[in-house]
Amino acid sequence: MWNASNDGSGDRQNETPDDRAERIRQRAYELWEAEGRQEGRTDEYWKRAEELIEDEAQTAYPPSASRGNRT
User: Fold this and answer.
1) Whole-angstrom Cα distance, residue 23 to residue 27?
2) Domain ranges across the chain
3) Quick one: the chain helix, strand, coil %, rounded to 5?
4) CA dist., res. 55 & res. 64, Å (int)
5) What distance lies between CA 24 and its chain's CA centroid?
6) Average pLDDT of the chain, as a whole number
7) Are 52 and 70 contacting, i.e. CB atoms less than 8 angstroms apart?
8) How far is CA 8 from CA 13, 14, 59, 67, in A?
9) pLDDT tens profile 11-30
10) How confident is the model at residue 61, as a pLDDT?
11) Which helix or strand (DSSP H or E) is residue 58 part of?
């Protein structure tokens, strides 16, 4: 059902659309496995994985941005 070859790590700032799709595929696979490998819910797992990846991208920020202005 899924290809689970990528661990999702690496530099996401330079991520290509193919890299992003692979991360989504991996996350969807993890969700599918965690929920008992239920068949017929591929689109649901993909959508949830997409949302999780997007949430991670929105909350990620460079460490220097979190320290504020230290002049």
Assistant:
1) 6
2) 18-58
3) 55, 0, 45
4) 20
5) 5
6) 80
7) no
8) 13, 13, 17, 27
9) 566 889 899 999 999 999 99
10) 65
11) helix 42-59
